[in-house]
Amino acid sequence: MTIQRPSLDRAADLREEPDVLDRLRDDPSTRVIVVREGRVRVTGSTLLRVPVEGVVDASWALLGRDQDGTVLVLAVVPPETDAVDAAPDEIWLGLRDLGGRIDERESELLVEAIALAGWLRDAAFCPTCGGATELRQGGWSRRCLVCGRDHFPRNDPAVIVAIESRDGERLLLGANANWGGRMYSCFAGFTEAGESLESTVHREIEEESGVRLSSLRYISSQAWPFPRSLMVGFRAVVDDEAAARPDGEEIVEVRWFTRAEIASALAGDGPVGLPGPSSIARALILDWYEERA
What angle do CA 109, 38, 265 make, to 5 degrees? Predict the structure, then answer.
């Protein structure tokens, strides 16, 4: 799996400019990515960029610069009651809907917009004293008007792990109780306070699948704004394959898959489903499969 460099210019140099959002909203060249309930307007395979004057009743933030240098801002709008509010070739879609339909740059912009929109929506008050806050740094920080503390958008780190057999020919996946046993995926869990990523992997894997790991290596990461996760992906080799068993609560079944079975599931022909193309879970599974396919 290739570790990608960021393709989006987030224009951090503009964030400290006084009243930057007011200036950008007055600039007719500025374009807006509108987010509504975690979804954006899409035309074809591109996020729709609209002029500022067409957007009302919104919370605003600076997103960055587009490929042609145009400044992009975020507008978070409330739920819409009208059944139709876009041209016929425009639809509102979220990250899970768009997996595989948009390129890397558009995907990076989408994740940034959805993640920042969630923070703008949910963090209007100071978590320390409960006071109201004001936006600063182009929408990337808040200052409490009561206690003066500064607050920033946060990420909650979580690990996600593809576990392979000692000979590398089988992959251990689990069925989450929330999926009704219809889909299998890699094992994942949040990092606890004072815990390293590596310690999280060993703890979560043993808790969920019963196995211990003999080796572990980092692969890649993915921002996952549901609501603010940072998924850190690993591959690991199991110590004792026979020890695999579900925890019976979060994971209802674990199963070893051969490459032929994974190939069938990837093609949509297998008896079980795999995660969608927008998730790092599928990327980890595909990384393992293609290594010896």
Answer: 80
